[in-house]
What does this fold into?
Amino acid sequence: MKLSLPLVAFILPLIRAQVPHWGPCPEPAVQAAFTLKQFMGRWFEIAKLPAQFEKGRCIETNFTLKADNSIRVVSSEILKGELREIEGTGVIEDPKNPAKLGISYAYVLPYSPYWILATDYVNSALVYSCTDILRLFHFDFAWILSRTRTLPAATIEQAKEIFANNNIDVTRMIASKQQGCEKTL
It folds into this structure.
């Protein structure tokens, strides 16, 4: 255990904005009968667990199915008055469970989990990602997405309940800023 403590002390500052928890990742239920083609398109971030890589406002992601059945993933945000974009690749990691996607924003990095816990394809989607560190602790991300820049408060509360019912702590979930996004930069 003495070796583990220095490792934890080293890694925790690197993920300070993320939400670390003791123990391995939970195994939440994902969307049954998930249809990837229906999920494609533009999604706006409504709420999230804090993430070091998302600091701006007007965050959105566009998913496009490619000919080889991989997914072009383009995420954008406005940060300090500038539109910033990053492009990545998504894949279905297990064809028997297509709601468990993997996304990578760099060729040298492995795919990170991007699990669709629930979606109706036309209004909202709940996404979860989690990474174990030696099964001692994990850090996770959760997003409430919408096809529009807003969702009713009742829908957001229902989404949080779904996360909580799957042992995902969303007490630190924060609203994403989606105001003033249509202005020209």
Q: What stands out?
A: The beta strands are 19-22, 41-48, 57-65, 71-79, 82-92, 100-104, 112-119, 124-133, 137-146, 174-175. Residues 153-165 form the longest helix (13 residues).
